[in-house]
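Give me structure tokens for this 348-residue protein.
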Amino acid sequence: MITVSTKTVFLFPGQGAQYRGMGLDLLEKGGAAVKGLFALASETMGRDMAALLAGADDASLKRSDISQPAVTLVNLAAAAFLGERGIRPAACAGFSLGEYAALVTAGVITAEDCFRLVKLRGRAMQAASDRIAGEAAAAGGSGSISGGGDGDNAPGMAAVIGLAPERVEELVAAWKEAGLEGLYGANFNSPKQVVVSGTAAALAEAQARFKEAGARRVIRLQVAGPFHSPLMADAAGAFAPALEKTAFRDPVIPCFSNVTGKRVSAGKDAKELALKQIVCPIYWTREEAAVEAEGAGAALEAGPGRVLQGLWRDSGSAVPCYPAGTVPDIEALFSTEIKPGTPQEAAG
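Here you go.
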């Protein structure tokens, strides 16, 4: 059971957690803070975000230029809804894209700047993904520039289940030395799960190789590009000017970096890490340990899905982690009948 006196940490999910209709119950039941976020996001995006969330199909939601603003809006709306119920975080962390909601929550950037940045970030990352897919198609390989691509033909990410993170790193390095190009360790999510990024050809080849090496499963993720890898260098270059022009303040509550896995103490560091995050791996396991060290009594996954709840449980933490991305989830926090959700795969 959560009370207003419980020391909580907010965890914000990233791209890949999206689903049609997410956040609409928060808008319906929420107060002025939630409704203001939907209005601000709609103004920044130049489209009605509630209508988008209600009507977008899976393929559209998978696009980085759509999913990034949409997931960020629902993350922030969940945090605002919690705040309207008296629950405010003692610390916060975000997974990949989720870092932007964490930066707002920690007072590092404004919500207005956040929506502007994720709009530009999503466009830059989608453009880089489309370029990679187009080059593969032009070279006679598999590629798709249909705006997100399908799981077989587009560059993207895959979750490797059942191999230790150290083993995945060893295999990727060995295969690269032997000539396999375009494959990178991207997200070190838990002792049971690592996500790799790569071109379509590299992911197809790696799937068979990981299974031969003992992986239980290799699952292509519902994301539109090979995030957190050097393949996103063009996106980082395109995004850098907008990031540089944005004011980043020092955090007012503890927040943490995907790149280092450590607490971020200064706004200037947060800005540098936000750019590096596009091309560098995410060390979520390290970040979870740093978050737990802050002494929170509970962790809340403020946003769509239950991806981070599963990863938190896999970390072995004694601190409970609960879903808090829907009205029923949040209402359940105040009862004694809180049950953990089903683990999923985390992407970006």
